[in-house]
UniProtKB/TrEMBL annotation:
It comes from Glarea lozoyensis (strain ATCC 20868 / MF5171). GO terms for biological process: abscisic acid biosynthetic process. Keywords: NADP, Oxidoreductase. Belongs to the short-chain dehydrogenases/reductases (SDR) family. It comes from the Eukaryota. InterPro entries: NAD(P)-bd_dom_sf (IPR036291), SDR_fam (IPR002347). Gene3D superfamilies: NAD(P)-binding Rossmann-like Domain. This is NAD(P)-binding Rossmann-fold containing protein. SUPFAM superfamilies: NAD(P)-binding Rossmann-fold domains. It holds the Pfam family adh_short_C2. One of its GO terms (molecular function) is oxidoreductase activity.
């Protein structure tokens, strides 16, 4: 039997890491998945890809803008209206932003990066935790392996929340903030049997890293520094997210799991 018997919610699910994570939940036997993003067309493509894996998966498509608190609240409410609970939430919606140093970054550009990557992820996690607190825990395993979990949240940060790189001060700061609030939330809600962790991807092959040639060029040194000397795939990041949501990570709390081909240790 699948260990993912509960309800999954994935933001940023129209593309890249979020899409790969929603698909991975379906591949691992999860049959109730909310896919959430501001890009409706992309969400519909993700829905089609999931339906090709299994007809047994019920997919709820939710159009949501991470800049709008009421829409994020509704995202969780719509999921609960459909299935009564949220067991695994992976918050992957995010932007790279303007790729410029601070003196060439306007306050509006800073606010946009901060409000989507930090505030939007925090709001998602906040509404998900509030829902999880109201639900009865899922239990599995026997004896010493017995686990009781009311919910598990994975926020997508970045290797750039831990180390710096040129031309990305606002992005780096937004991701450091995600790591920091994840730790705070994991401490506050462990007593409720809610686990909150984050994943820090390295350079990953998604539409985010396939943009302008100048940006792709700027990523090359980061790929060369990583001992594995390649980009990660969105599926490899999704694997880490599912691990943190699953029973194998039952004692993992407030962790920032770096999945970067070794970039930050080199
Ligand atoms: N690709 C990488 O190299 C990399 C590395 C480290 C961290 N990340 C992080 O991983 C996450 C996923 O990125 P990705 O690489 O899959 O990029 P992506 O561009 O393929 O996907 C990001 C998704 O977020 C959605 N999104 C952006 N702003 C939104 C908003 N205001 N409201 C709702 N949805 C919004 C987009 O529509 C898109 O579907 C991001 O948080 C990103 O910062 C990516």
């Amino acid at each position: 039997m699948s260990q993912y018997t509960g309800v999954a919610l994935v933001t940023g699910a129209a593309s890249g890491i979020g899409r790969a994570t929603a698909i991975a939940f379906a591949q691992e036997g999860c049959t109730k998945i909310s896919i959430c993003d501001r890009n409706l067309l992309g969400l519909q493509e993700t829905q089609t890809l999931i339906s090709e894996i299994s007809k047994d998966v019920d997919v709820l498509v939710i159009e949501v803008d991470m800049l709008e608190e009421s829409q994020i609240d509704n995202m969780v409410k719509k999921t609960v209206e459909r299935w009564g609970r949220v067991d695994y939430a992976v918050n992957a919606a995010g932007i790279i932003g303007n790729n410029a140093p601070s003196t060439q970054t306007t306050a509006a550009q800073f606010d946009l990066i901060t409000n989507i990557n930090y505030r939007g992820t925090w709001l998602s996690s906040r509404f998900e935790i509030a829902q999880m607190q109201t639900q009865t825990p899922l239990e599995w395993g026997n004896g010493k392996k017995r686990q009781k979990v009311r919910g598990s949240i994975v926020n997508i940060a970045s290797q750039l929340g831990l180390v710096g790189r040129p031309d990305a001060p606002a992005y780096c700061a937004s991701k450091a903030a995600v790591i920091a609030f994840t730790r705070g939330d994991s401490i506050d809600y462990a007593k409720d049997d809610i686990r909150v962790n984050c994943v820090c991807p390295g350079v990953t092959e998604t539409p985010m890293t396939q943009g302008e040639p100048k940006f792709r060029e700027a990523l090359k040194p980061a790929i060369d520094i990583a001992p594995m000397k390649r980009m990660g795939t969105p599926e490899e990041i999704a694997d880490a997210c599912l691990f943190l949501c699953g029973s194998g990570a039952g004692f993992v709390c407030g962790h920032a799991l770096v999945v970067d081909g070794g970039y930050i240790i080199n």
